[in-house]
Write a structure and sequence with these properties.
The chain has 346 residues and is an alpha/beta fold. The protein has a single domain, classed as Metallo-dependent phosphatases (Purple Acid Phosphatase, chain A, domain 2, 4-Layer Sandwich), CATH 3.60.21.10. It is built from twelve helices and eleven strands. The strands form two sheets. A six-stranded mixed β-sheet has the order 1-5-6-7-9-8. Strands 4-3-2-10-11 form a five-stranded mixed β-sheet. Strand 5 and strand 6 form a beta hairpin.
Length: 346
Protein backbone atom coordinates (compact mmCIF):
# COMPACT_ATOMS: atom_id res chain seq x y z
CA UNK A 1 0.00 0.00 0.00
CA UNK A 2 2.88 2.35 0.63
CA UNK A 3 3.84 2.21 -3.06
CA UNK A 4 0.27 3.03 -4.12
CA UNK A 5 -0.03 5.92 -1.67
CA UNK A 6 3.32 7.31 -2.73
CA UNK A 7 2.21 7.13 -6.35
CA UNK A 8 -1.06 8.94 -5.61
CA UNK A 9 0.74 11.56 -3.54
CA UNK A 10 3.12 12.13 -6.43
CA UNK A 11 0.19 12.64 -8.79
CA UNK A 12 -1.48 15.04 -6.36
CA UNK A 13 1.74 17.00 -6.04
CA UNK A 14 2.19 17.65 -9.75
CA UNK A 15 2.31 21.32 -10.60
CA UNK A 16 1.37 20.56 -14.21
CA UNK A 17 -1.46 18.60 -15.81
CA UNK A 18 -0.72 14.88 -16.28
CA UNK A 19 1.14 13.63 -19.32
CA UNK A 20 -1.45 12.50 -21.88
CA UNK A 21 -0.15 8.92 -21.86
CA UNK A 22 -0.45 8.69 -18.05
CA UNK A 23 -4.00 10.03 -18.11
CA UNK A 24 -5.01 7.67 -20.91
CA UNK A 25 -3.54 4.66 -19.09
CA UNK A 26 -5.30 5.50 -15.83
CA UNK A 27 -8.66 6.02 -17.53
CA UNK A 28 -8.30 2.80 -19.51
CA UNK A 29 -7.55 0.86 -16.33
CA UNK A 30 -10.64 2.23 -14.61
CA UNK A 31 -12.86 1.51 -17.62
CA UNK A 32 -11.57 -2.06 -17.78
CA UNK A 33 -12.35 -2.51 -14.09
CA UNK A 34 -15.89 -1.21 -14.57
CA UNK A 35 -16.55 -3.28 -17.67
CA UNK A 36 -15.39 -6.45 -15.91
CA UNK A 37 -17.70 -5.99 -12.91
CA UNK A 38 -19.71 -9.10 -12.10
CA UNK A 39 -23.29 -9.05 -13.37
CA UNK A 40 -24.72 -9.56 -9.89
CA UNK A 41 -22.89 -6.43 -8.70
CA UNK A 42 -23.61 -4.30 -11.75
CA UNK A 43 -26.44 -5.77 -13.86
CA UNK A 44 -26.00 -5.39 -17.60
CA UNK A 45 -28.36 -3.81 -20.08
CA UNK A 46 -29.93 -5.53 -23.08
CA UNK A 47 -26.75 -5.00 -25.12
CA UNK A 48 -24.53 -6.51 -22.45
CA UNK A 49 -23.10 -3.21 -21.22
CA UNK A 50 -22.64 -2.51 -17.49
CA UNK A 51 -25.78 -0.75 -16.30
CA UNK A 52 -26.25 2.31 -14.12
CA UNK A 53 -26.77 0.44 -10.86
CA UNK A 54 -24.15 -0.93 -8.46
CA UNK A 55 -25.05 -3.30 -5.64
CA UNK A 56 -22.60 -2.83 -2.78
CA UNK A 57 -21.18 -5.51 -0.51
CA UNK A 58 -23.66 -6.45 2.21
CA UNK A 59 -22.68 -5.89 5.84
CA UNK A 60 -19.51 -3.98 4.95
CA UNK A 61 -18.87 -0.41 6.12
CA UNK A 62 -19.04 2.21 3.39
CA UNK A 63 -17.42 5.64 3.18
CA UNK A 64 -19.32 8.03 0.92
CA UNK A 65 -17.33 10.94 -0.52
CA UNK A 66 -19.36 13.88 -1.88
CA UNK A 67 -18.46 16.05 -4.87
CA UNK A 68 -14.67 16.11 -5.21
CA UNK A 69 -14.25 19.13 -7.54
CA UNK A 70 -10.52 18.81 -8.15
CA UNK A 71 -9.67 18.28 -4.46
CA UNK A 72 -6.99 15.61 -4.61
CA UNK A 73 -6.19 16.45 -1.00
CA UNK A 74 -9.72 15.39 0.00
CA UNK A 75 -9.26 11.99 -1.65
CA UNK A 76 -5.89 11.45 0.03
CA UNK A 77 -7.31 12.53 3.39
CA UNK A 78 -10.10 9.97 3.06
CA UNK A 79 -7.58 7.21 2.33
CA UNK A 80 -5.62 8.20 5.45
CA UNK A 81 -8.62 8.47 7.80
CA UNK A 82 -9.17 5.76 10.44
CA UNK A 83 -10.93 2.65 9.25
CA UNK A 84 -14.67 2.79 10.05
CA UNK A 85 -15.72 0.51 12.86
CA UNK A 86 -18.93 0.22 14.83
CA UNK A 87 -20.56 3.05 12.91
CA UNK A 88 -17.80 5.54 13.70
CA UNK A 89 -14.31 6.02 12.23
CA UNK A 90 -12.61 4.30 15.18
CA UNK A 91 -11.04 1.26 13.56
CA UNK A 92 -7.41 0.39 14.19
CA UNK A 93 -6.18 0.86 10.61
CA UNK A 94 -6.75 3.40 7.86
CA UNK A 95 -9.15 3.34 4.94
CA UNK A 96 -6.61 2.41 2.27
CA UNK A 97 -5.41 -0.58 4.32
CA UNK A 98 -9.03 -1.64 4.88
CA UNK A 99 -9.67 -1.37 1.13
CA UNK A 100 -6.74 -3.66 0.45
CA UNK A 101 -8.03 -6.15 3.03
CA UNK A 102 -11.58 -6.04 1.68
CA UNK A 103 -13.03 -4.64 4.93
CA UNK A 104 -14.47 -1.36 3.65
CA UNK A 105 -15.94 0.09 0.47
CA UNK A 106 -15.63 3.60 -0.91
CA UNK A 107 -18.24 5.40 -3.03
CA UNK A 108 -17.60 8.73 -4.76
CA UNK A 109 -20.77 10.61 -5.75
CA UNK A 110 -19.13 12.27 -8.76
CA UNK A 111 -18.02 15.74 -9.95
CA UNK A 112 -14.30 14.96 -10.02
CA UNK A 113 -13.24 18.04 -12.01
CA UNK A 114 -13.83 21.82 -12.01
CA UNK A 115 -12.60 23.61 -8.89
CA UNK A 116 -15.40 25.67 -7.35
CA UNK A 117 -15.44 28.90 -5.33
CA UNK A 118 -11.88 28.60 -4.03
CA UNK A 119 -10.69 29.03 -7.65
CA UNK A 120 -13.15 31.71 -8.73
CA UNK A 121 -10.44 34.26 -9.48
CA UNK A 122 -8.43 31.71 -11.41
CA UNK A 123 -11.44 30.92 -13.60
CA UNK A 124 -11.71 34.59 -14.60
CA UNK A 125 -8.00 34.68 -15.42
CA UNK A 126 -8.40 31.50 -17.44
CA UNK A 127 -11.38 33.01 -19.27
CA UNK A 128 -9.11 35.80 -20.53
CA UNK A 129 -6.73 33.11 -21.78
CA UNK A 130 -9.62 31.25 -23.41
CA UNK A 131 -10.68 34.37 -25.29
CA UNK A 132 -7.14 34.60 -26.61
CA UNK A 133 -7.28 31.04 -27.95
CA UNK A 134 -5.13 29.77 -25.07
CA UNK A 135 -1.99 31.27 -26.57
CA UNK A 136 -1.30 31.86 -22.89
CA UNK A 137 -2.66 29.24 -20.51
CA UNK A 138 -0.95 29.54 -17.12
CA UNK A 139 -4.19 29.91 -15.15
CA UNK A 140 -5.92 27.16 -17.12
CA UNK A 141 -2.87 24.92 -16.64
CA UNK A 142 -3.31 25.27 -12.87
CA UNK A 143 -6.99 24.41 -13.09
CA UNK A 144 -6.41 21.43 -15.34
CA UNK A 145 -3.55 20.21 -13.16
CA UNK A 146 -5.90 20.06 -10.17
CA UNK A 147 -8.79 18.60 -12.14
CA UNK A 148 -7.04 15.99 -14.27
CA UNK A 149 -4.60 14.87 -11.59
CA UNK A 150 -7.54 14.34 -9.22
CA UNK A 151 -9.38 12.43 -11.94
CA UNK A 152 -6.32 10.24 -12.46
CA UNK A 153 -6.17 9.47 -8.72
CA UNK A 154 -9.83 8.40 -8.65
CA UNK A 155 -9.30 6.23 -11.75
CA UNK A 156 -6.23 4.56 -10.29
CA UNK A 157 -8.12 3.80 -7.08
CA UNK A 158 -10.90 2.17 -9.09
CA UNK A 159 -8.37 0.03 -10.94
CA UNK A 160 -6.51 -0.88 -7.74
CA UNK A 161 -9.65 -1.87 -5.80
CA UNK A 162 -12.25 -2.76 -8.45
CA UNK A 163 -14.59 -4.56 -6.04
CA UNK A 164 -14.49 -1.98 -3.25
CA UNK A 165 -14.15 1.44 -4.91
CA UNK A 166 -17.06 2.80 -6.93
CA UNK A 167 -17.11 6.12 -8.75
CA UNK A 168 -20.54 7.45 -9.71
CA UNK A 169 -21.35 9.96 -12.42
CA UNK A 170 -22.09 13.57 -11.56
CA UNK A 171 -23.25 16.41 -13.78
CA UNK A 172 -19.65 17.64 -14.25
CA UNK A 173 -18.60 14.38 -15.93
CA UNK A 174 -18.93 15.94 -19.38
CA UNK A 175 -15.44 16.50 -20.76
CA UNK A 176 -16.81 17.33 -24.22
CA UNK A 177 -19.28 19.90 -22.81
CA UNK A 178 -21.94 18.21 -24.91
CA UNK A 179 -25.71 18.42 -24.77
CA UNK A 180 -26.67 14.77 -25.26
CA UNK A 181 -26.99 11.51 -23.32
CA UNK A 182 -28.36 13.41 -20.33
CA UNK A 183 -25.43 15.84 -20.26
CA UNK A 184 -25.75 19.61 -20.43
CA UNK A 185 -23.07 22.26 -21.07
CA UNK A 186 -21.72 23.71 -17.85
CA UNK A 187 -20.93 27.26 -16.78
CA UNK A 188 -20.94 28.72 -13.27
CA UNK A 189 -18.53 31.61 -12.99
CA UNK A 190 -17.64 31.82 -16.69
CA UNK A 191 -17.80 29.10 -19.40
CA UNK A 192 -15.98 26.36 -17.52
CA UNK A 193 -17.32 23.49 -19.62
CA UNK A 194 -16.44 25.10 -22.93
CA UNK A 195 -13.04 26.16 -21.63
CA UNK A 196 -12.16 22.64 -20.50
CA UNK A 197 -13.38 21.15 -23.79
CA UNK A 198 -11.23 23.60 -25.77
CA UNK A 199 -8.20 22.89 -23.58
CA UNK A 200 -8.64 19.14 -24.00
CA UNK A 201 -8.92 19.58 -27.78
CA UNK A 202 -5.66 21.53 -27.84
CA UNK A 203 -3.54 19.49 -25.44
CA UNK A 204 -5.15 16.05 -25.03
CA UNK A 205 -6.27 15.01 -28.48
CA UNK A 206 -6.59 11.35 -29.32
CA UNK A 207 -6.29 8.58 -26.74
CA UNK A 208 -6.20 10.83 -23.68
CA UNK A 209 -9.43 12.65 -24.53
CA UNK A 210 -11.13 9.49 -25.77
CA UNK A 211 -10.27 7.60 -22.59
CA UNK A 212 -11.73 10.30 -20.33
CA UNK A 213 -14.87 10.45 -22.48
CA UNK A 214 -15.28 6.66 -22.31
CA UNK A 215 -14.66 6.70 -18.55
CA UNK A 216 -17.47 9.20 -18.08
CA UNK A 217 -19.87 7.19 -20.23
CA UNK A 218 -19.12 4.01 -18.25
CA UNK A 219 -19.71 5.46 -14.78
CA UNK A 220 -22.82 4.13 -12.97
CA UNK A 221 -25.47 6.43 -11.52
CA UNK A 222 -26.47 4.98 -8.14
CA UNK A 223 -25.15 2.50 -5.59
CA UNK A 224 -27.38 0.37 -3.38
CA UNK A 225 -26.27 -0.70 0.10
CA UNK A 226 -27.89 -2.63 2.94
CA UNK A 227 -30.14 0.24 4.04
CA UNK A 228 -29.14 3.12 1.80
CA UNK A 229 -28.92 4.47 -1.73
CA UNK A 230 -26.09 6.73 -2.88
CA UNK A 231 -26.37 8.97 -5.94
CA UNK A 232 -25.13 12.29 -7.16
CA UNK A 233 -28.35 14.30 -6.97
CA UNK A 234 -31.82 13.99 -5.52
CA UNK A 235 -33.83 11.87 -8.00
CA UNK A 236 -36.09 14.07 -10.10
CA UNK A 237 -38.71 11.30 -10.13
CA UNK A 238 -38.93 7.58 -9.37
CA UNK A 239 -36.70 5.49 -11.65
CA UNK A 240 -37.34 1.74 -11.88
CA UNK A 241 -34.47 -0.75 -11.91
CA UNK A 242 -34.75 -1.38 -15.65
CA UNK A 243 -34.55 2.35 -16.36
CA UNK A 244 -31.38 2.77 -14.31
CA UNK A 245 -29.77 -0.37 -15.72
CA UNK A 246 -30.57 0.84 -19.24
CA UNK A 247 -29.39 4.40 -18.60
CA UNK A 248 -27.14 4.56 -21.67
CA UNK A 249 -30.23 4.71 -23.87
CA UNK A 250 -32.27 6.87 -21.48
CA UNK A 251 -30.86 10.39 -21.31
CA UNK A 252 -33.73 11.52 -19.10
CA UNK A 253 -32.55 9.06 -16.43
CA UNK A 254 -28.99 10.39 -16.52
CA UNK A 255 -30.18 13.96 -16.29
CA UNK A 256 -32.73 13.22 -13.57
CA UNK A 257 -30.14 11.51 -11.35
CA UNK A 258 -27.30 14.02 -11.86
CA UNK A 259 -28.76 17.49 -12.49
CA UNK A 260 -31.77 17.88 -10.15
CA UNK A 261 -31.68 21.14 -8.20
CA UNK A 262 -33.27 21.69 -4.80
CA UNK A 263 -37.07 21.71 -5.04
CA UNK A 264 -37.08 20.28 -8.58
CA UNK A 265 -37.74 16.67 -7.55
CA UNK A 266 -41.21 15.19 -7.35
CA UNK A 267 -42.30 15.14 -3.69
CA UNK A 268 -42.32 11.35 -3.38
CA UNK A 269 -39.30 10.51 -5.56
CA UNK A 270 -36.95 9.63 -2.70
CA UNK A 271 -39.55 7.60 -0.81
CA UNK A 272 -40.51 5.62 -3.90
CA UNK A 273 -36.87 4.89 -4.73
CA UNK A 274 -36.24 3.64 -1.18
CA UNK A 275 -39.42 1.53 -1.26
CA UNK A 276 -38.48 -0.08 -4.56
CA UNK A 277 -34.76 -0.68 -4.02
CA UNK A 278 -34.83 -1.52 -0.29
CA UNK A 279 -38.22 -3.23 0.16
CA UNK A 280 -37.11 -5.44 3.06
CA UNK A 281 -35.64 -2.65 5.19
CA UNK A 282 -37.65 -0.92 7.91
CA UNK A 283 -38.83 2.45 6.58
CA UNK A 284 -37.26 4.42 9.42
CA UNK A 285 -33.84 2.90 8.70
CA UNK A 286 -33.67 3.69 4.97
CA UNK A 287 -31.78 6.72 3.72
CA UNK A 288 -30.71 8.23 0.38
CA UNK A 289 -27.40 10.18 0.29
CA UNK A 290 -26.16 12.61 -2.34
CA UNK A 291 -24.24 15.77 -3.04
CA UNK A 292 -24.61 18.09 -6.05
CA UNK A 293 -26.04 21.12 -4.25
CA UNK A 294 -23.74 22.62 -1.60
CA UNK A 295 -24.71 22.81 2.05
CA UNK A 296 -23.57 25.28 4.66
CA UNK A 297 -22.73 22.82 7.44
CA UNK A 298 -22.00 19.13 7.46
CA UNK A 299 -25.32 18.08 5.94
CA UNK A 300 -28.82 19.16 4.94
CA UNK A 301 -31.99 17.06 5.16
CA UNK A 302 -34.63 16.94 2.46
CA UNK A 303 -37.60 14.69 1.58
CA UNK A 304 -38.76 14.47 5.17
CA UNK A 305 -35.27 13.63 6.40
CA UNK A 306 -34.89 10.64 4.04
CA UNK A 307 -32.53 12.46 1.65
CA UNK A 308 -29.22 13.69 3.10
CA UNK A 309 -27.03 16.16 1.19
CA UNK A 310 -23.38 16.15 2.32
CA UNK A 311 -21.55 18.36 -0.21
CA UNK A 312 -19.75 21.26 1.49
CA UNK A 313 -17.05 22.50 -0.91
CA UNK A 314 -15.22 24.30 1.90
CA UNK A 315 -14.92 21.32 4.25
CA UNK A 316 -13.66 17.72 4.03
CA UNK A 317 -16.94 15.95 4.73
CA UNK A 318 -17.71 12.23 4.33
CA UNK A 319 -20.51 9.94 5.46
CA UNK A 320 -19.91 6.64 7.24
CA UNK A 321 -22.55 3.96 6.60
CA UNK A 322 -21.99 1.07 8.91
CA UNK A 323 -25.16 0.29 10.84
CA UNK A 324 -28.76 1.42 10.67
CA UNK A 325 -30.35 3.71 11.43
CA UNK A 326 -28.22 6.37 9.79
CA UNK A 327 -27.68 9.29 12.16
CA UNK A 328 -26.24 12.33 10.35
CA UNK A 329 -25.07 13.86 13.62
CA UNK A 330 -22.98 10.75 14.28
CA UNK A 331 -22.25 9.47 10.79
CA UNK A 332 -21.46 12.62 8.78
CA UNK A 333 -17.92 13.46 9.83
CA UNK A 334 -15.18 15.89 8.92
CA UNK A 335 -11.88 14.39 7.82
CA UNK A 336 -8.71 16.18 8.90
CA UNK A 337 -7.52 17.93 5.72
CA UNK A 338 -4.13 17.49 4.14
CA UNK A 339 -2.32 20.81 3.84
CA UNK A 340 -1.92 22.34 0.39
CA UNK A 341 -0.57 25.56 -1.00
CA UNK A 342 -2.31 28.94 -0.87
CA UNK A 343 -5.78 28.90 -2.33
CA UNK A 344 -6.88 31.05 -5.21
CA UNK A 345 -8.74 34.22 -4.28
CA UNK A 346 -11.11 36.51 -6.15
Amino acid sequence: MHELIESLQSIAGRAAPPPPADLAAAMAGAVAAMEQTDDDVRPRDQLGRPGGLVRLHPRMPCVVVPDVHARADLVLAVLAMPEPGGGLPTGSGCVVDALAAGRVQLVFVGDYVHAEGRARGRWFDAFDEYQGGFERHDAMDREMAESLNTLEIVARLKAAFPQNVHALKGNHENIANEERDGNMPFGKFVYEGAMVAEYMDLFYQGAAFDSVYRFEKTLPLIAIGDFYIVGHAEPERFYAVDEVVGYRDRPEVVRGLTWTANDEAEPDSVTRMLDAYLPDVVCEERVYLGGHRPVGGRYHLRAGGRYVQIHNPDRSIVAILDRPPFDPERDVVEVPPIARGPEETD
